[in-house]
Amino acid sequence: MKRAPIEALRNYETASRLEWIESDGVGGIAASSCIGANTRKQHALLALELDLVGRCVLVSNMQETVFDGEASFELSTNAYSRAIHPTGFLNLVDFSPEPWPTWRFQLGGITLERQFFLAHGEHTAVLIYTVVNGKRPLRLVARPMLAFRSQNMVRRAHDWNPGNWQVSREFTEFRPLDDFPAVYIAHPNAVTHTVPLWYYDFLYERDRESNVDCIEDLFSPGYFEIELAPGQPRALVISTPSPRSTNLAEYYLSEERTRRSGLRTCATGRGPAFESLARCADLLVHENREGDPSILAGLPWGEADYPSGLLAMPGLLLSTQRFELARDYLRSAIAAWVDSWNPSAFQSVIAPNPVALVDGPLWIFVAAWQYWIATGDREFLANELYPKLETVASGFMERLGYQCSIEPLISVRRSDQQEIVHLTTNALWYNALETLAQWASALKHGGHADWRNRSELCRRGFQRIFLCGDGATLANVVSESGGWRDASLRSSQVLAIGLPFAVLIDADSVLSRFQAELATPVGLRSLSCRDSAYVGDGSDIRFLPRRWSGSVDPAYSGLYCDSLIRAGKKQAAHELVESLRSVVSGRGDGFLPGAFSGDAPHGPCDFVVSACAVGEALRVFVQFNEAASK
Predict the structure, then answer these.
(1) Which end of the chain has the least Cβ crowding within 10 Å, N or C?
(2) What's the Cα-to-Cα distance from 553 to each of 275, 482, 578, rounded to whole Å?
(3) Per mean pLDDT, which of 207-221, 335-349, 470-484 is the most reliable?
């Protein structure tokens, strides 16, 4: 996100839609709008994963007022159910998300800088205030606003009786509930006032637009008074589960500056859009409780989930040259599947249907092939990837009982006990079989002929079952008995022509129909715009329950671009890539959402940041540049 002009920052409606997000690399996040007004219940200064409640919001915000003698100036901005108050955004003259969120306020004739970041590797948030110019000290009053609740809930005053606010010379400690860790706030040379107050009826406007709970009360146990001398930074350090001194603020700042500057190396010479996405990729990758790399499906909400993480991994990790991390992620995904052989246990997010459950582990083959192409890591292939994924494929054929009568395709039993054969599952299955055939050949393994034979049988069976008579229409789902088929045109059908091994070789007619009915400047609609069930305003995703019925799913933008390049339609691929570049940072620095509305102007209508959207855009930018140079 480029620096917004002052007139944009001082327009509440515009500025409140631009967001920033921070991540600590171990599951904690912070987020808000660029003017500091929380517009979602997931916005917070400190939110983290807990065993019993999932991600929770501990510290929602900080209310800040600066005094210059008798004059007072607000830094904070809040939306209440009946008013915007205070209006600190009117004092804001600059906001930059790079290298971390930094604000500059004009307070009379004095400029105050406010910086915020999360320290990597621990749950610690740092706020730094600096009087940039001026000849006299100012007085800052900072009041923490506490929530202590799940990220998807709201807190109301009547359901909580908070206590346990402990004050010492350097730290304050707050732990109102046994299921939550203590929060510590370090405050240098501050005067602490224990004046507990409830603030009522905060309004989260983005949640209101989605018709979900959007009114909250927040508790403030007291406030700090801090003298701000000109040119001398003062910090507040918020941490859990143990206290961190403000003496560490300068160390954290130096360490984060070094770490984040290192992230730019992979983006050198690839343009500002790639650089923004690469920074965003760092937010989505974290270390889980077991010490393994994990990928969040989206931010500021969304859990780590292998199916979406595997689709996103090639872009997030390989395109940014984090090869060792990618190898460790593949190891953890394979182990998670082999240890359970249970589709439900493989993903933390409850899948909407049995097809999604079966598809999940098959994405391992796609990510593993991309890793092999990017690295040529023959040792890892021979010792781990090939033998373990050969076991996975054998399990699908024998152990899990997915094989159907149309051998060697895979069927799934629905809740009504009917056996169905799904396009996405079998496009992924063909890709898995062909991946193993290619690897067996590269390793001169004796299983090459068997996997190639199965692959060819799968391809023929797929075309016989899913390709309709006109050669341009694919069926999504076919009953194993052959009694019915769903031939609606959906974005997920791009798996048949866009995966590394496309099950449809001659796909020009199918691709032409995609271009006519699904294609938009930001990717493929989830349902044809000519379908009677098409929803183009984004409400199919924006409102609960969510059903993909026309909104654009950018998770498939990379596969669509691959299919265009493969078909020789380089101009269409170029236009898609350039359009994706133009929408990067529409909601924040490098942020690509989880969905766009199907109708123009294709506004965002899901995750502020989607791992799949960011990952596929990174991958496509690299791949398209390589294809264009040939």
Answers:
(1) C
(2) 23, 30, 17
(3) 207-221
Other CB atoms within a 10 A radius of the CB of residue 601 amount to: 8
Q: Cα separation of 553 and 100, whole Å?
A: 29
Q: Is the pLDDT of residue 356 over 80?
A: no
**CB-facing half-sphere around the CA of 17: CA atoms within 13 A:** 12
Question: In sequence order, what are the beta bridge partners of 167?
Answer: 172
**Is the distance from CB of 561 to CB of 576 less than 8 angstroms?**
yes
Kindly report the backbone phi and psi dihedral angles of residue 386, in degrees, each rounded to the nearest multiple of 5, phi listed first: -65, -50
Q: Which residues contact 527 (CB under 8 A, 6 or more apart)?
A: 488, 489, 490, 491, 533, 534, 535, 548, 549, 550, 598
Q: What is the pLDDT of residue 166?
A: 87
Q: Please state, in angstroms and as integers, the Cα–Cα distance from residue 457 to each residue in 141, 363, 409, 429, 453, following that order.
A: 72, 21, 9, 12, 6
Instruction: Write down the pLDDT at residue 54.
Output: 87
In this prediction, residues 289-304 reach a mean pLDDT of 92
Contact 138/228 with Cβ under 8 angstroms?
yes
DSSP state of 176: -
Q: Is the dihedral angle over the CA atoms 145, 149, 155, 161 positive or is it negative?
A: negative
Who wins on pLDDT, 357 or 249?
Answer: 249
Element (H, E) at 429: helix 423-442
The residue among 402 and 240 whose pLDDT is bigger is 240
C-alpha 317/C-alpha 87 separation (Å) is: 41
Residue 218 has pLDDT above 90, yes or no: yes
Q: What is the pTM of this model?
A: 0.93
SS3 at position 528: coil
Q: Would you give the DSSP letter of residue 90?
A: G
Compute the radius of gyration of the chain from its Cα atoms: 26
Which percentage of the chain shows pLDDT scores above 70? 93
∠ CA 214-215-218, rounded to 5°: 125
What would the two tokens of residue 313 be?
Answer: 């991994």
* Token pair recorded at residue 75: 């830094």
Can you tell me the distance from the alpha carbon of 127 to that of 233, in angstroms, rounded to the nearest whole number?
A: 10
Chain mean position to CA 330: 19
3 state SS of 213? coil
Summarised one tens digit per residue, pLDDT across range 375-416 is 999 999 999 999 999 999 988 877 555 555 556 788 877 666
CA 283, distance to chain mean position in Å, is 8
User: What is the distance between the alpha carbons of residues 46 and 85, in angstroms, rounded to a whole number?
Assistant: 22
**Where do runs of H (alpha helix) occur along 285-403?**
306-313, 323-338, 343-346, 354-375, 378-380, 386-394
DSSP code string of 35-86: TS---STT-EEEEEEETTTEEEEEEEEEEEEEEETTEEEE--EEEBSS-EEE
The predicted pLDDT at position 160 comes to: 83
Which residue's structure tokens are 């923004």? 276
The per-residue pLDDT for range 175-215, each reduced to its tens digit, is 888 889 999 999 988 999 988 999 999 999 999 999 999 99
Cis peptide before 99 (omega within 30 of 0): yes
Pairing type for strands 29-33 and 19-23 reads antiparallel
- pLDDT value, residue 200: 97
Nearest to 247 by CA among 124, 96, 134, 138: 124
Q: How many CB atoms lie within 10 A of CB 390?
A: 16
Quickly count: other Cβ atoms within 10 Å of residue 571's Cβ. Answer: 9
Interatomic CA distance for residues 409 and 462, integer angstroms = 7
Q: Which residues pair with 64 in a beta bridge?
A: 142
Angstrom distance (rounded) from CA 569 to CA 574? 9
* pLDDT average, residue stretch 60-67: 98
